[in-house]
Amino acid sequence: MIAFIILLFLNLTPKFQEEIIIDSKMTFEESISGINFPMQILNQLELVDVKYYSFDGKLHQGQVLINKKVKKDILELFEIIKEIKFPIAKAIPISRYDWDDEKSMKDNNTSAFNYREVKGTSIKSYHSYGLAIDINPLQNPHIKRGRIFPENANYNPVAAGTLTKESVIVKEFIKRGWSWGGNWKSSKDYQHFEKRLK
Ligand SMILES: [Zn+2]
Questions:
Q1: What per-residue confidence (pLDDT) applies to 4?
Q2: Distance 137 CA to ligand 1 centre (A)
Q3: Is 107 exposed, middle or buried (0-12, 13-18, 19+ CB in 10 A)?
Q4: What is the chain's mean pLDDT, rounded?
Q5: Cα 190 → chain centroid
Q6: What is the pLDDT of residues 95-132, one digit of tens each?
Q7: φ/ψ (deg, to 5) at 168
Q8: For the chain, what percent of residues have pLDDT higher than 70?
Q9: How much distance in Å is there from the Cα of 19 to the middle of ligand 1?
Q10: 14 CA distance to ligand 1 centroid (A)?
Q11: Strand ranges for the chain from DSSP E
């Protein structure tokens, strides 16, 4: 009888364990393979797991490759992203896209480290140190001299997953000392946040 009651109780207990869809589960080695870059930078990087709701309304788990110095910020930010259910399409280290920023953006991928220059210059981007992150490039494109990157993107301030001056996410990044590309004068890089460490 007692066993029956326990079974009945277990059966009636709501299932709190929400199913998680895995978008990325790489090893650190996989996340840095395919390009050469200075060991000094490699030693500063860490691959962290993040959870977020995607556009399907389901909880997903992805990964971001970042500088250890911004780990705390990034984990706090993703905690807020999950809490307020700000949709993130996916977060997969860019090695999966052969280090091709264009490919990653077109796939609406959120990513951080990539050893590359600022588009159209020879200056190393903050992404090269794991100190920058791009969020939902299709909702938050880079608009420069009337051109839009990626080409299949569209900036609609009221669409889900879009960043504006009023976004909680933008405010929380700025609060932690990050600079947002949507506030730039020469071009608008709505997907981009970077932390300029002193
Ligand atoms: Zn960026």
A1: 62
A2: 9
A3: middle
A4: 93
A5: 13
A6: 999 999 999 999 999 999 999 888 788 888 999 999 99
A7: -55, -45
A8: 92
A9: 31
A10: 42
A11: 21-22, 45-53, 59-67, 90-91, 109-110, 132-134, 142-144, 147-149, 178-180, 188-189, 192-195
Which pLDDT tens digit goes with each residue over 44-103? Answer: 999 999 999 999 999 999 999 999 999 999 999 999 999 999 999 999 999 999 999 999
Please give the distance, rounded to the nearest whole angstrom, from the Cα atom of residue 134 to the centre of ligand 1: 5
Sequence-separated contacts (24+) of 112-120 with Cβ below 8 Å: 112/64, 112/65, 112/66, 112/74, 113/45, 113/65, 113/66, 113/67, 115/35, 115/37, 115/41, 119/144, 119/149
Ligand 1 centroid from CA 135, angstroms:
8
What predicted TM-score, i.e. pTM, was given to this entire model? 0.90
Q: Which residues pair with 137 in a beta bridge?
A: none
State the Cα torsion 38-92-78-155 to the nearest 10°: 110
**Token output for 160:** 């889900």
| Residue length of the chain | 198
pLDDT per residue as tens digits for the range 126-168:
999 999 999 999 999 999 999 999 999 999 999 999 999 999 9
